[in-house]
Amino acid sequence: MYDKKLIVEILQNIAWSLDQIVKRFQTIESSDDFLKDDLGLEKLDSICMQLINIGEALKQIDKLTDAKLFINYPDVDWKKAKGMRDIITHHYFDIDAETVYVVCSERIPDMREVIKKILKDLENNKYNRS
Questions:
Q1: Which helix (H) or strand (E) holds 52?
Q2: Active-site choice (85, 91, 107, 129)
Q3: Is the Cα torsion angle 29, 34, 35, 40 positive or negative in sign?
Q4: Known catalytic residue: 85?
Q5: Close Cβ partners of 109 (under 8 Å, ≥ 6 residues apart)
Q6: pLDDT tens figures, 49-88
């Protein structure tokens, strides 16, 4: 059994971080936009910070649920999402702007929808946990 209220709170934090990424990514049209000036670098930095937050929160949820929640939502590659956090955190100077661009443009919208679905499922008591 896991604390549903805590899981919901963590998922809401993930949703907020995803919204921040979407907002900050709006003006980015290519990976070069991250590197062309200080504003682009600031966006890259702030998006990477949110990716770290998301990866850490996903790991926390796995720990709290014995890795049993996300297996019900295979549309997101949760392992890669958590791995992104590790890469950014431990190899920050090796971050590839193209990879961050692809994640933001192709993966974040899907994850955002899945996180909303998980929150809705928990709200509707799909999982009978405490």
A1: helix 38-64
A2: 85
A3: positive
A4: yes
A5: 22
A6: 999 999 999 999 999 999 999 999 999 999 999 999 999 9
Strands (E), 60-119: none
CB contact at 8 A, 56 and 81: no
Residue from 24, 90, 112, 129 carrying the catalytic annotation: 90
21 CB-contact burial (10 Å; exposed 0-12 / middle 13-18 / buried 19+): buried
The amino acid occupying position 62 is D
pLDDT tens digits for 16-55?
999 999 999 999 999 999 999 999 999 999 999 999 999 9
For residue 49, count other CB atoms closer than 10 A to its CB.
Answer: 15
Q: List Cα–Cα distances, 79 to 3, 13, 47, 56, in angstroms.
A: 22, 19, 19, 12
Q: Considering the entire predicted model, what is its pTM?
A: 0.92
Active site includes 91?
A: no
